[in-house]
Amino acid sequence: MGRYVLRRLLQMIPVFLGTTFLIYALVWAVPGDPFAGKCGERECPEQYVQAMRAQFNMDDPLLVQYGKYILNLLQGDFGKTFSGTEVADRIAATFPVTVRLAIVALIIEAIIGISAGIVSGLRNRGFLDSLVLVSTLFLISIPVFVTGSVVQLVFGIQLGWISPTIKGTGFTDLIVPGFVLASLSMAYVARLTRASISESRRADYVRTAFAKGLPQSRVVGVHMLRNSLIPVITFLGTDLGAFMGGAIVTEGIFNVPGIGGLIYKSIQTKEGVMVTGLVTLLVLVYLLMTLLVDMLYAVLDPRIRYE
Amino acid sequence: MSDPTSATSEAVAEAGGGATLGKPRGLMGDAWRELRVRPLFWISIAIITLVLLIAIFPGLFAHADPNLGMLSRSRKPPSGEAWFGYDQQGYDVYARAIYGTRASLLVGLLATIGVVILGSVLGILSGFYGGWLDAVLSRVSDIFVGIPFVLGAIVILTSLNTAGQGGAVRIISLVVLSIAALSWPVAMRIMRSAAITAKQQDYVKAARALGASPTRIIVRHMLPNCLAPVLVYSTIALGAFIGAEATLSYLGVGLRNPVVSWGVMINDAKDYIRVAPHALLFPSAFLTVTVLAFVMLGDAVREALDPKLR
Questions:
Q1: Is residue B37 part of a domain?
Q2: Does B51 reside within a domain?
Q3: Which of A145, A158, A274 would best serve as a mutation to test chain B binding (most B beta carbons within 10 A)?
Q4: Triad A72, A78, A80: Cα angle to 5°
Q5: What is the CATH number of the domain that holds A181?
Q6: Which residues are CB-contacts of A198 (< 8 A; sequence separation ≥ 6)?
Q7: CATH number of the domain residue B304 falls in
Q8: pLDDT tens, A234-263?
Q9: Where is this protein chiefly located (chain B) (predicted)?
Q10: Which of A116, A143, A177, B303 could anchor a disulfide with A190, C-beta 3.0 to 4.6 Å?
Q11: Which pTM value belongs to this model?
């Protein structure tokens, strides 16, 4: 196990460097003057531009710039924005909100998706099964921003059941945005669970368990679930990373002060340091989650062994 | 199922199976027989045909001018004159939704073609040759998968859009490019695993033993056998990419004036959702129904192509 983790961690290094370099190059090496409009209604003074270019190593070749950036990053220094704010401070202020949102979404997704999948998988081709299939089809087809806007319009503005934008950033405040964020993946989880349950329903060990006279709740809850949830867990794990990167739309609709809005604003104002820092963080989360999921395999299914 | 009639065999030959009476049917022939009896398949085909017709001949479906904005009729609700009402700028929402079909569909179609071609070529090469080529290509695809889609697309589009305003062609091709650049690894992985399986099959070994060149093995023997999973993926992806275009346009970085698409309309309407929800809901409905049709088609085709699910 230890050697496996080490090998995976080593494999992550080129991927991490490649992804961050790609983003860095896109943000920094494109035409366009990042100092346009930075100094109000006049051109920026020559000294200011020169000082800034020196501070952000913008006169070095791209690879050298990137190298310096990564070296700083490895020492925990995310750098400063053009206006002198520490990027790390801004991340510390917004990242926890997005993490909470992603966790709320993950919990909603897991509870609703898995239970819908179990119900429909156990009653193959019944009414409930068709209902779940049709509703997942619809959920997959509706883009998140439509779901968000409609939920906000109907429940927030017309019916007044919820506040149209969130009031705080606690876990309970984030339930509605979390639900919207999770809506698409919920459908995938339901389908995955359904396929996996209806497959294991015919397995020998399930028949044996029934033949021993175990109650259905135990057969389903212990014998079937443990085996059929493995692909679902994989999906959920990688989804946590996807939620953080994909939260921009949901955060925008419900006015959640998370990293989505921060990234969007930073891209628009060409705050390269902020963009690269945040994307780097998201890529790291994604890579670590995939590793974690692979290791969970071995815990859930003792038959899987890592060399 | 009914016994084979001449109509069936024609249909089978059309579907690419090339089977005639008495001969065993190929995978595609089997799939077609399976598909023919599914109502879901026909519903999705009907919707897709309609949407295609709208995209090709929008003038047949709407007579109002989609680019005529009159502030005097701003935000008027649906009426007999304009079925879907007017938006903030006084545009006819129905006419715009009809004329917006072309751009939305075009982006989805071109992005899918790009992803399938790029992903399939790289995937089949990487699966067939293996070794260092496979290692390099797989790591490169890992890099692109690691970038969150929406973020990556925003960065690409914002960076490249600054170069100039550009016309409709430039705006559309940039969106297509950014979707394709961030999505090809999925098609590549599907193709690669299919190619690895196919490579160990006897017919490939036989072809090799007969002295067939690698090009011939890839094109004549492996490609037809690896295409099915990628085809299924591409149907679902087409729907997903239409949704992706709308998401990017919604965020204000995708398509924009003078191009009209459902995403552009939704972006125009989102700030007035309290006073004119119809301007947002109608294009969203067009979008959802179209995506739904492609997802349903993909579902039906996958079930038909996968013998395990029968």
A1: no
A2: yes
A3: A145
A4: 110
A5: 1.10.3720.10
A6: A121, A122, A124
A7: 1.10.3720.10
A8: 888 888 888 887 788 888 888 888 888 888
A9: membrane
A10: A116
A11: 0.84
